[in-house]
Amino acid sequence: MKLLHVDASPRSATSSSRALSRFFVDQLRRRLPALSVDYLDLAVEPAPVITETFTTATYTPADERTDAMQGALAPSDALCRRLLDADALLFAMPMHNWTMPAAFKAYVDAIVRGGITYVATEEGRYVGQLGGRRTLFLTTRGVDLRAGTPFAAMDMLTPSLRAAFGFIGVDAPEFVDAQPLQFAHEIERADALRRAKRELAETARNWADELRPALSRAG
Ligand SMILES: Cc1cc2nc3c(=O)[nH]c(=O)nc-3n(C[C@H](O)[C@H](O)[C@H](O)COP(=O)(O)O)c2cc1C
Question: pLDDT (tens digit, 9 = 90+) per residue, 46-58?
């Protein structure tokens, strides 16, 4: 049983999304000691920016690709493999300008791949290949964008994550959004962190209850 844990904040020691994603993984590990974790830090190993060769290569049949095309696709192939190899997924990131940070957008561009993470059928449908994986998006935000707040309509992060990952088959994404953090008063910030930790602990409990039987079967 493998969890793919992806962090995308440009901050390191002071990052709140990293601290919260670590908290979630600790909670999950306490309940599932046999869990293995594949950790990807996009600040250390950034996904490549899409180039012209990549663009041509991705729409060229695999057996017609030149060496240069294969080279351009290789990092994306590897990222897709890590995703498909995982049984559960955790993506942690800050909100940047109302949507995902650029490092995570580059990752999305690398993992949405025809013939790998989604497949086009002869009837013209698209079938995502990541179904059946527990998936958590953990986001941190400077302001409060919950329903009923003045910034609620500015949340382009949740819908874009739902769309991109729904297309590749993530059918029941879960979200824990820590907000408001950076631009809030200390008391509000502490409340937001407490709320997020409570939700993360509950999510870890639910995941563990569901994943434990499969882990014990795997021995
Ligand atoms: C470039 C940049 C853009 C940001 N844009 C937003 C934004 O649009 N909305 C928001 O609520 N917070 C925004 N923030 C604040 C971060 O989302 C917030 O500080 C978050 O907690 C950072 O998480 P991290 O510590 O894991 O990087 C922005 C921060 C940066 C650096």
Answer: 999 999 999 999 9
